[in-house]
Write a structure and sequence with these properties.
Low-confidence stretches: 1-13, 15-41
Largest sheet: 6 strands, mixed
Number of strands: 11
Number of helices: 14
Length: 435
């Protein structure tokens, strides 16, 4: 079923305007509709007719787009995209806000269990990592569609594996890349002259500044991201010191043989770090929003986010002080590509593909990369773009609190998705507390 607050799509069909009807007729007559002309630049002639048919099947539909709804900037961007696809395709893009992506995963799984195989309530979902792995394993996603999008070619997939791999798992055409994000740290420069730039420097800084840093407890996404960053860095350091190759194990599924060997260095690190954290590690933060509020209230001096642009946005709306500065760790920034996917039973799969293709357009990607809008790094490769398209990405001078353009010197990839459960179970067993 659709969310209770939203009438079912069958009850609120999009009206076919005179303009869109004219476009369809014109498309039939001349072989290409005006509404698709801008998407054909990345296609060969053989694919043109297929995409034209997709447009005709997907126009004038509703698309229920399920995404995490916890960031005002991201929500505003989706509303901008909704207006654009309404104008372009007469599509009604309904933003279904989630507190966690797993809610949508559970919904599709429940629909499959109920044999609802063609009238699903989720048309498009923002996803990556463990949630993608779960949906893929349970055959909950539509296959072999993403690579057929006209704008997918602009990601240069043959030379850019990050758009065809999700946490190391092949996407098999089940996901269209949407953007890239990295773990970003921020601090109050009135309280810190020189912030810690590596994991080991962070440990020493916390020892010298007890109670001034903390992280959200798992399964919170940000808290888990910090733990994964720490785990990767610890094994890179241990491998370098001992001449071992345990870091490579993080790219493989967790199993009984390697679980303790890989995770024990993390527990040793946290045993040392926790007494120096906020509330001495006896209680943990609940979310990134709480962490940001504590920085604003001077309860913390150092924090982090996976959405770097939220920092200057928070400063501009007075949720953080103007003395805040953003930076990236020099030993490596945990980074990933995030995607959109279509459930196998989506009610409006053709329309969802039109939306996904628009989200990959130079116009939409450039608008999203603008720090004042979202600041999410584009997945498009500049060499695939025309000079006019490249000009869309030229940014104005960033806000003083924003992450500098060249701040990320080194990225590190996410571990295999199965390590999320391994980390969470081990963390809960050792550090889980009642609050």
């Amino acid at each position: 079923m659709h969310p209770a607050s939203l009438p079912a799509a069958s009850m609120i069909p999009k009206k076919l305007s005179r303009y869109s009807a004219f476009i369809i007729v014109l498309g039939i007559c001349v072989g290409i509709s005006a509404s698709t002309a801008s998407t054909l630049t990345a296609m060969d002639n053989k694919s043109t007719l297929q995409w034209q048919q997709m447009v005709q099947a997907g126009e004038n539909q509703d698309v229920y787009f399920h995404t995490w709804g916890g960031d005002p900037q991201i929500n505003a961007y989706i509303q901008w995209a909704a207006k654009a696809v309404d104008k372009k395709y007469n599509i009604n893009l309904v933003h279904v806000k989630l507190s966690d992506t797993s809610e949508a995963v559970s919904r599709v799984l429940a629909e499959k269990s109920a044999n609802n195989n063609d009238k699903g309530s989720v048309d498009l979902i923002w996803i990556n990592g463990a949630n993608f792995a779960a949906m893929s394993e349970n055959k909950l996603l539509l296959k072999d569609w993403a690579s057929t999008l006209p704008n997918f070619a602009l990601t240069d997939p043959d030379n850019n594996p990050s758009v065809t791999l999700d946490f190391g798992l092949p996407t098999d055409g089940m996901e269209a890349p949407w953007g890239q994000a990295s773990l970003t740290f921020y601090y109050d420069n009135l309280a810190i002259d020189k912030p810690p730039a590596t994991l080991q420097q962070l440990r020493m800084w916390a020892q010298q500044n007890p109670g001034r840093f903390g992280y959200p407890k798992p399964p919170d996404f940000l808290g888990m991201s910090f733990l994964k960053y720490a785990l990767v860095m610890l094994h890179e350091q241990n491998d370098s010191k001992n001449g071992t190759t345990l870091r490579a194990e993080l790219n493989q599924p967790v199993d009984a043989q390697n679980k303790d060997l890989i995770l024990n260095p993390l527990w040793d690190f946290l045993d040392e770090l926790h007494p120096m954290l906020w509330r001495k590690g006896e209680q943990f933060l609940q979310s990134g929003a709480q962490m940001r509020r504590l920085v604003d209230d001077t309860g913390l001096s150092l924090a982090f986010t996976f959405s770097g642009p939220e920092i200057p946005a928070a400063v501009q709306r007075y949720d953080l002080p103007p003395s805040i500065r953003s930076y990236a760790m020099t030993d490596g920034s945990l980074s990933n590509t995030h995607f959109v996917a279509i459930p196998y039973n989506a009610s409006h799969a053709a329309a969802a593909q039109l939306v996904a293709n628009f989200l990959l357009s130079p116009e939409a990607q450039a608008h999203k990369q603008n720090p004042a809008v979202w600041g999410d790094k584009t997945v498009l490769i500049q060499s695939t773009l025309s000079a006019e398209q490249q000009a869309l990405f030229k940014a104005n001078k960033p806000h003083a609190s924003a992450l500098p353009f060249d701040a990320i010197k080194r990225t590190v990839s996410e571990p295999h998705p199965s390590w999320v459960d391994g980390i969470m179970q081990g963390w809960q067993a050792r550090y889980g507390v009642s609050e």
